Amino acid sequence: MNTNILNEELRVINIGTSTFKTDLDLQNVESVQYDWRPPAGGNKELIEALDFLQDKEEVEKANQETIKVIKEAHPFLVDIDQAITAIPGMHDKLILHSGPPIKWSDMCGPVKGAIIGALIYEGLADDAESAEVLAGSGEIDYAPAHQYSAVGPMAGIISPSMPVHIIENRTHGNKAYCTVNEGLGKVLRFGANSPEVLERLKWIETVFAPALKQALKLTNGIDLKSITSQSLHMGDECHNRNKASTSLFYREIIDYFLQTDLNKAELREVTAFIKENEHYFLNLSMPASKSALDAAHGIKYSTIVTTMARNGVEFGIRVSGLDKDKWFTAPANFVKGMFFPGYTEEDAAPDLGDSTITETMGIGGFAMGASPAIVQFVGGEVQDATNYSAQMYEITAGENSNYSIPALNFRGGAFGIDIRKVIDTNILPVINTGMAHKKAGVGQVGAGIVHPPVACFEKAMIDFVKEYKGGN
After folding, report:
1. Which run of H or of E encompasses 88?
2. DSSP state for residue 164 in the 8-state scheme
3. What pTM was computed for the model?
4. Are 53 and 88 in a shared domain?
């Protein structure tokens, strides 16, 4: 025993309340704060679940198989067509939305506004009033886009006539779908449904989509995995920053447009639409991620998350080793970040959209270390972005060398969110995202950082153990 400890220079590790560290700082005593909490927050049921799954061979093997499938997926943009033609199971009275299942009566403002716009766009209603009556009448079916191999940003609305990008995962043979990004300003994905919004959607349907379809017929598909990989080395994270990826896509597709029979005016119009919309690639990175994660769903014993999505009311996750129709939900959090001039926290809707499929894939918020400029949009400092990326290794099963991060010495990005590690470490996945105004049609009011509610992972963990404990 060291009996002279009180006479020696102290170097303190403080565990618990930071008040003690503050006092030590005032006395110029060297100290560090260790932010420790008991595993699973001390919840006995969750600790028992962790014990049951600790080092379980079947789980470890399944998780390695899951991340192998995700990593080896190779998504290509192969076509564009109307949703009713492209998406299996789509019908003329079905509206797909972002996030987990929700009834019309429970939907948030932007989603309701977007559905009203979609019904007018489809010719099922003449105006907003009649569309709202129809929307709540029971004649319209609603379902998460995720349950139809599709994804949509923010409100996420896909109606039958809307053109969707068709993404083929050529490694595993499955497809995924997403609408065309409308650009900024008043757009359907934020709940706007004014005449100019609907006119733009009709232009996308009748002019842009047929032109892109012609161009894609001349390709062997556009390699989205390659574009994503390159763009991470050029300052994108492929969720909120898509400047490089959209530019790379534009470079890939432009020569094929030039080979079509479009006249000069049409050519300038459709190519300018991509060129002037820096977020165009978001609606390609999302279904590319979706195609990889869908291929990895349904692997027995896997604790890897294959879906994170939100509808402006609830946040939901799905887990590979559990039934694809099982959503684990909790109230969506509010995004913390930077607001556009004139807006405050009081204006924002809760977390919204399917774009968290990018974080589920290991890009987006997980890859912020590759995108230092993103902090100008979501807030914080460059080091914060790097720290977020580094922290995500603690809750994931693998490192994706296809999507490496230069700032981390080209280390493969963290991917394969493991519900066990989330519960054990008390670390939640990081998401960077835009904020929608709570009222339909106002649009984006800011951007920032958000985390899923921990209850989603707790519910999934408990259900997972119930599912598998009986057979062990």
Report:
1. none
2. E
3. 0.91
4. no
In a domain, 175, yes or no: yes
291 domain residue, yes or no: no
Amino acid at 226: S
Helices (H), 80-194: 83-86, 109-121, 128-135
Tokens of 154: 């923010």
Q: Report the relative pairing of strands 75-82 and 163-169 from DSSP bridges.
A: antiparallel
**389 in Cβ contact with 368 (< 8 Å):** yes
What's the domain count of the chain?
A: 3
The alpha-carbon radius of gyration of the chain (Å, integer) is: 23
Report the C-alpha gap between 116 and 397 in whole angstroms: 42
Domain assignment of residue 15, given as a range: 5-36
Structure tokens at 272: 């300018």
pLDDT in tens for each of the 472 residues of the chain? 556 665 677 777 877 666 676 777 777 777 777 666 677 778 889 999 999 988 899 999 999 999 999 999 999 999 999 999 999 999 999 999 999 999 999 999 999 999 999 999 999 999 999 999 999 999 999 999 999 999 999 999 999 999 999 999 999 999 999 999 999 888 999 999 999 999 999 999 999 999 999 999 999 999 999 999 999 999 999 999 999 999 999 999 999 999 999 999 999 999 999 999 999 999 999 999 999 999 999 999 999 999 999 999 999 999 999 999 999 999 999 999 899 999 998 999 999 999 999 999 999 999 999 999 999 888 889 999 999 999 999 999 999 999 999 999 999 999 999 999 999 999 999 999 989 898 888 888 889 999 999 999 999 999 999 999 875 5
How would you classify the pairing of strands 163-169 and 444-450? unpaired
Are 327 and 251 in the same domain?
A: no
Structure tokens at 143: 């379902």
